[in-house]
Write a structure and sequence with these properties.
2 copies of one chain form a homodimer. With 172 residues, chain A is of the alpha+beta class. Helices cover 33% and strands 33% of the residues of chain A. Chain A has one domain: Trna Endonuclease, Chain: A, domain 1 (3-Layer(aba) Sandwich). Chain A contains 5 helices and 10 strands, in the order H-E-E-E-E-E-E-H-E-E-H-E-H-E-H. At the A-B interface, strand 3, strand 4, strand 5 and helix 2 of A face strand 3, strand 4, strand 5 and helix 2 of B. The complex binds magnesium ion (MG) (2 copies). One magnesium ion is lined by residues 56, 69-71 of chain B.
């Protein structure tokens, strides 16, 4: 299962149990040609993927606005920043400015290690790149700056527990 | 310009001026056939529209999670409830339960009258339908229960002013 599917499954659990309402946003497409046959569903015959203007996930939990993107890497000792796009960082910055609880969901695929990295920490690594900083975030820094999440059953990824710790540490 | 375009334009203004971060969610599509030609963008050759599981708009404003759908009618004296779908109402209920600030954005096209109707009021009309209630919300009730919004320039629809009043009245 991809990280996205794992998160979607966890979100379905949280929704069904009235714990949080978090949804993945659909991928935006530019429609070019759509057929409307009589007596059956519209068929999209030509369309293109558009670049999203936001992150993949957002929603509401205990009155907090949550916003995040999820990324996986095959790397073992660091998380490459090229997994993020400028527009995602800009979107997260705008949400943080409005008081949202924002983070990145990082997975090291080889070891199945999962972390929730606060947006503020992500911004620091992102901005350092331009001033000669590293192009990736060392795993040991993620272990220190982030909140590790352990797979379990129902939900598969209990990331709301890490969100609780983040909210507490943010003091919001 | 459609109501959706008008709201999108207003959201672009709010985003550019660091006032609020509200986006329309893309329409979900079920991909069936996608071509990946060499050296050019992927082309979607067959796809179908899926029913969204949420409302169209959400985002963050002053730490509040906002969630709403926008609807227009050609009716003159009432707003038909058939413009709403069960899954949208259920989604709004779940968001309200999590402390979100939720509403419907209603437009009477003939008169260009715009209202923000709090979700709690919408639920009341929705639920009454099943027990022999009206199938539409009278304009005079919307005038009383909702917040009227007047078109202006920049933003075209200054709905965040109405959100401020709603937040104040909700006492959250
Ligand atoms: Mg992603
Ligand atoms: Mg709509």
């Amino acid at each position: 299962m991809s990280l996205e599917q794992e998160i979607n499954e966890s979100n379905a659990y949280y929704l069904a149990h009235n714990i949080a309402v978090i949804h993945k946003k659909p991928t935006p497409v530019q429609l070019v040609k759509v057929d409307y046959p009589k007596r059956s569903a519209a068929v999209i015959k030509e369309a293109y993927f558009r670049r999203p203007s936001t992150t993949d996930y957002n929603g509401v939990y205990r009155g907090y606005y949550l916003d995040f993107d999820a990324k996986e890497t095959n790397n073992k000792v660091s998380f490459p920043l090229k997994n993020f796009h400028e527009h995602q960082i800009e979107h997260l910055r705008a949400c943080v400015q409005q008081g949202g609880v924002c983070f990145a969901f990082l997975k090291f695929s080889h070891t199945n290690q999962l972390f929730l990295l606060p947006a503020s920490k992500l911004f620091a690594y992102w901005d350092e790149q331009d001033s000669g900083g590293r192009k990736s975030i060392p795993l040991k820094n993620i272990e220190q700056d982030g909140y590790q999440i352990t797979y379990q059953f129902n939900p598969l990824i209990p990331y709301i527990d890490a969100v609780d710790r983040l909210i507490e540490d943010l003091g919001v």
